[in-house]
Design brief:
The protein has 103 residues and is an all-alpha fold. The protein has a single domain (3-90), classed as Helix Hairpins (Orthogonal Bundle). It is built from 3 helices and no strands. The relative contact order is 0.14.
Length: 103
């Protein structure tokens, strides 16, 4: 097994755990954690393909990963802000209980 295969297997496992967490949980914060795990597995794939690609000296994979980390940080900040506002309004973070948007 090559090192690239090992990285890809770990990333696939991490993505699977994140997908299962995002689809099966009812708590909004745990869903956000699952989405973050999926984004981290994508970052791991970007770094692995950059490192074991034909031209690792170009740093393109590293730049994509840094951009993806910045997008994930912004997503987490906006998502947590939304969860806090929903909790203040509905007094719950259960996604099944929050079934309508009301002004």
């Amino acid at each position: 097994m090559t090192p690239l295969t090992g990285f890809l297997l770990v990333a696939a496992l991490l993505f699977s755990i994140g997908l299962a967490g995002a689809l099966t949980r009812r708590n909004a914060i745990l869903v956000l954690i699952g989405i973050e795990l999926m984004l981290n597995s994508a970052n791991l794939n970007l770094i692995a393909f950059w490192r074991y690609g034909p031209h690792p000296e170009r740093l393109t994979g590293m730049m994509f990963a840094i951009f993806s980390i910045a997008v994930a940080a912004a997503e987490a900040a906006v998502g947590l802000g939304l969860v806090i506002q929903i909790h203040r309004h509905a007094h719950t973070t259960d996604l099944d209980a929050i079934n309508r948007m009301k002004g």
